[in-house]
Amino acid sequence: MSFKATSEKINLEDVKSATRLTGDVLAKKESRDKELEAIMRGEDDRVLLVIGPCSSDNEEAVLEYAHRLAKLQEEVKDRVFMVMRVYTAKPRTNGDGYKGLVHQPDAKGAPNLINGIKAVRNLHYRVITETGITTADEMLYPENLSLVDDLVSYIAIGARSVENQQHRFVASGIDVPTGMKNPTSGNLNIMFNAMYAAQAQQNFLFNGEEVQTSGNPLAHAILRGAVNEYGKNIPNYYYDNLLETIETYEKMQLENPFIMIDTNHDNSGKHYLEQVRIVRQTLINRDWNEKIRKYVRGFMIESYLEDGRQDEPEVFGKSITDPCLGWDNTEQLVRELYDSLGK
Q1: Tens of pLDDT along 28-81?
Q2: C-alpha to C-alpha distance for 186 and 149, rounded to whole angstroms
Q3: Residue 291 needs a FRET pair 20 to 30 A away by CA distance; which of 26, 73, 90, 148 works?
Q4: 325: β partners
């Protein structure tokens, strides 16, 4: 065997014990989770934003962002519901680069997964308890779901994970909304098959046990664009793309049809300011077509304190992974969205 243990076995219950939600904070989270579920089921017509940094690389910068977002949420809460991206594990296509807080709790330091696990719990806990905003994370590693399952309000399955059977089956046991991205190829059938599996009951082995899930009726589609064999970005948020996605939803008769537009990645070509235009164009499409307005009710936006990205964590609140909208542009976009929804 080429596996070598580099730490003692982790006692996850001990790690979680110091960061469990209780009292008023737990009640606040449960209340917001009910609001979010109503939005996903179409019982609440507010637009959902899953918004925040591409990766949560710096605890204090993330908390500064969270405080600003919570204040803005209060101002727009009657038309817009926001869940903050606190993404702590990042997919790396070739294994190189920053892999997220769970790997490197100090973005300038060496990998330390034991401290990383504690840092992940602590960050989600601090965002919720100190600001009242609830959080989202990406399920890059299915076996790590239990690390944050009691803290997060939204889970995303990424473009490279959505084809994986374990991710699909684990998603069927998640009790919060779970967004499933189209794969990088852009093949919508793969995404819809993943959603079908996630909404169904499943039996499988998970963390050393045979488990049975009840199915996740809040599993839904995230359109994030694609890339062709020549490396060219192929957006899939356009009018015809939305109608095609809606048609497949109706054909498959999945529960709680909901489409979220990922405004970055291959939809924007990672040109962060394009996120503004993509939101604007989608709002026009919603106004133009009643079906699109019914189905397309969410945006995923990558946003941080400063515009753009950097290779090393030098500028406070600037992404070290994908480029993000800075706070000024973010606030302007959210207010523009809010005003548009009131017309």
Answers
A1: 999 999 999 999 999 999 999 999 999 999 999 999 999 999 999 999 999 999
A2: 29
A3: 73
A4: 303
